[in-house]
Amino acid sequence: MQHIHSGSNLRNLLVKISYDGKNFHGWQIQQNALTVQEVFQKSLEKIIGEDFDVKGCSRTDSGVHANMYCISVKTMHPIEPLRLKAALNRWLPKTVAVLDCTEVGIDFHARYSCISKEYIYKIWNSEVRNPFLDGYALHYRYKIDEKMLDSAAQAYVGKHDFTSFCTIDSREKGDMTRNVKSFSVTRDGNLVTMKVEADGFLYNMVRIMVGTLLRVQQGKIPADGISDIIEKKNRKFAGPTAQACGLYLNRVNYN
């Protein structure tokens, strides 16, 4: 919906949403698949017409969830942020909720103004699957030593070239350096949660980090082997890409 004209009445709104990604093919609009951006823009159009420009904070993959996802909306429409929040929540499907809507500076951009993102990955660690977590956590029936994995994962922290932890596709291969601020592995009963914050993430990076830690758990990669994998800058040395179902964009941080 790029029908927007610049002018003194142009406004910029920051809309924070959460969504269940189970039946969506990620955020970004696609030709033959239902995406979060598509349902968001259709709802927005019903409320303010076609005069808007939408930018999302990240391209989440198919099946990935978001506890917090940020969108910047530029429009000339005078609607109050609180009214827009209420109206969107009326029109959006039950799998998407608007948490907050505020007016921000015209230069704010949901993606480029972001200083860091935090993801979590949920693993249901029990012999018996949890039917309520189907599509919302990876079911892993073998033992997980969360303290050992938490220690191994500290090798991810810092500024590194994460080529080994990126699915190489047709996208332009740019700078593969990312600064990982923290990584933790914790347990609450049968639920193991991996949490990572970084200034940015490569394609499938978190899922490959998780898959690599599970290989460490299986003894197929040594507990102190993650630094070597980072050094090699080669995807084939890291573990498999963990399923999308356990991944949540948890927080998006701005200045």
Structure described in brief:
The chain contains five helices and ten strands. It is of the alpha+beta class and 255 residues long. Strands 1, 2, 3, 4, 5, 6, 7, 8, 9 and 10 form a ten-stranded mixed beta sheet that branches.
Could you characterize the architecture of this molecule?
The protein is of the alpha+beta class. It folds into two domains: 11-104, 2-Layer Sandwich (Alpha-Beta Plaits), CATH 3.30.70.580; 115-254, Alpha-Beta Plaits. Helix content is 20%, strand content 31%. The chain has five helices and ten strands; from the N terminus they run E-H-E-E-H-E-E-E-H-E-E-E-H-H-E. The protein has helices at residues 36-48, 81-91, 146-153, 205-217, 226-232; strands at 11-19, 52-56, 65-75, 96-104, 114-124, 138-139, 158-161, 177-188, 191-198, 247-254. Strands 1, 2, 3, 4, 5, 6, 7, 8, 9 and 10 form a ten-stranded mixed β-sheet that branches. Helix 1 (36-48) packs across helix 2 and helix 3 (146-153) crosses helix 4 (205-217).
Q: How many DSSP H or I helices? A: 5
Work out the number of β strands. 10
Which structural class do the helices and strands define? alpha+beta
Most strands sheet:
10 strands, mixed
The outline comes out as globular
Low-confidence stretches: none
The CATH architecture designation of the largest domain is 2-Layer Sandwich
- Whole-angstrom Rg: 20 Å
**What is the fourth-level CATH superfamily of the largest domain?**
Pseudouridine synthase I, catalytic domain, C-terminal subdomain
